[in-house]
Design goal:
The protein contains eleven helices and 15 strands. It folds into two domains: 281 residues, Rossmann fold (3-Layer(aba) Sandwich), CATH 3.40.50.1110; 78 residues, Immunoglobulin-like, CATH 2.60.40.10. The protein has 385 residues and is an alpha/beta fold. It is elongated. The termini are close together.
């Protein structure tokens, strides 16, 4: 998988951003918690009751019987390999066919115990978050039972997550469904409370059965990247904008008693897993909006403003990645490296994967265009495969 890279910052902002590279492993385990039965002590690690076929990549689970027993299995759905006479590692691939598997623990006296796992064909994939997830700046937009053209959630027909769902490999007899509930402008509180007249995104996630993958983009609106941009015009306002953004970032990422001793962002990741307990969570970061080494590219905006916004973006990504590492079943997906050389105001317009300024549709500004959404989809595939 790709690793997040903070990159190099200009000297004016090096005090703001601590660069760090963190390795995050993908743990594609989506199993129902299953307690060992007291009358069947021969199962040290029983198989899960249910395993969801992943949208992309693999799901693994372990089965282990007690010492002195022999483990065998029948049925289809997972490919299992013995790691000892009484233990096996099993894998469900994104193109696996569903079915029920029976695992048998046989004792030397001839007695045996059987338990089973259901591998599901039909699974669901849900996209949560803000405008980077909804597909702002990449029309046409689609509607659902809540969204209307007027409410401004701007869910693109070719958003990265929708592309990912369309490309999912579906075996014969199985299907992958997709719910796109991300909404432009949403903040972390809006994930729970709802926005633009819609129910909370977490409630819609919880109402979706058998979710195997959740994608999430959130934090940029909480920090207030757009407000930084306006505050930095003129450049004299950048220092106050920096202070405000730094306070907002700390409030979102610092452990606090009101969030159970963890940060608001970690509490959010855990709430997603509570709403979809069998799902893997992929959290996308944000690309750098402006070229870091070209002082003329974004004139008349000015380098103080672009440096500051890049710095806050990198620090938000760094903290998000560190927090994602703390939550099992969560992967951080870097977008800085994939978008390098394709910022909003690259001097060659064809290289821009982010809309710079759209005077007709101002909300499109600084958002991924069609090529940018395709690259986000590619980054998700690379991180999760």
């Amino acid at each position: 998988m790709k690793l997040g890279r903070s990159g190099r910052l200009c000297s004016a902002v090096t005090a703001v951003v601590a660069t760090a590279t963190v390795v995050t492993s993908v743990a594609w385990v989506t199993q129902t918690a299953s307690a060992v039965q007291s009358d069947q002590p021969q199962w040290l690690t029983p198989p899960p009751e249910k395993v969801l076929r992943p949208v992309i990549g693999d799901t693994t689970f372990t089965v282990e019987a007690a010492a002195g027993t022999t483990l065998t299995w029948t049925g289809r759905g997972a490919s299992c390999l013995k790691t000892s006479g009484s233990a096996a590692e099993c894998r469900v691939r994104d193109r696996s066919r569903g079915g029920r598997m029976a695992f048998i623990a046989s004792r030397p006296d001839g007695s045996r115990s059987t338990t089973s796992t259901q591998v599901l064909d039909d699974v669901s994939f849900v996209s949560l978050g803000d405008s980077y997830a909804s597909g702002e700046a990449d029309p046409p937009f689609v509607t659902d039972e809540y969204d209307t053209t007027a409410n401004g959630c701007h869910r693109s027909a070719t958003a990265a997550t929708r592309q990912l769902a369309d490309r999912a490999r579906v075996p014969a007899g199985g299907s992958t469904t997709f719910r796109h509930v991300a909404c432009s402008g949403v903040t972390i509180p809006g994930l729970l409370a709802g926005s633009k007249g819609e129910p909370g995104q977490l409630a819609r996630l919880a109402a979706t059965p058998d979710v195997s993958l959740v994608t999430l983009s959130v934090g940029g609106n909480d920090v207030g990247v757009g407000k930084i941009l306006t505050s930095c015009l003129p450049a004299a306002g950048c220092q106050e904008a920096l202070a405000q953004a730094t306070r907002a970032l700390a409030a979102m990422t610092t452990p606090l008693p009101e969030h159970g001793g963890i940060s608001l962002l970690e509490r959010t990741f855990r709430a997603v897993h509570e709403a979809a307990p069998h799902a893997h969570l992929a959290v996308t970061g944000y690309p750098m909006l402006f070229p870091p080494n070209d002082p003329q590219a974004c004139a008349p905006l000015g380098k103080p403003a672009t440096d500051l916004i890049n710095a806050i973006t990198l620090e938000l990504n760094r903290r998000t990645e560190l927090i994602a590492q703390k939550v099992p079943g969560t992967t951080f997906v870097d977008l800085v490296e994939p978008f390098a050389g394709h910022a909003a105001c690259e001097q060659v317009p064809a290289r821009r994967w982010l809309t710079y300024v759209d005077p007709v549709n101002p909300t499109y500004s600084l958002h991924p265009n069609a090529r940018g959404q395709a690259e986000i989809r590619r980054a998700l595939e690379d991180a999760l495969s």
